[in-house]
Amino acid sequence: MSKRLIRWLGGLLALAAGIYFVRYAYLALASKDLSGLLDGGVIAAATALTVLYALLIPTTGVAWTWLLRAMGQPARYRRMLPILAVTQFGKYLPGNVAQHIGRIAMARGAGVQLPAALFSIAYEMLLMLVACAHISALTLLWDPPAALSHWKITEYRLPLLLIVTLGAFIALLLAPRVASRLAIYRARHRGDQDYVPPRLHLNAATVLACYFTYAINFCLIGIGLWLVSHALLAGVTAPPSPIFLTGAFASSWILGFVAPGAPAGLGIREAILSAWLSGALPAEQVVLLVVVLRIATTLGDLFSLAWGSIATGRNGLPT
Question: What is the mean pLDDT of the chain?
Answer without folding.
Answer: 75
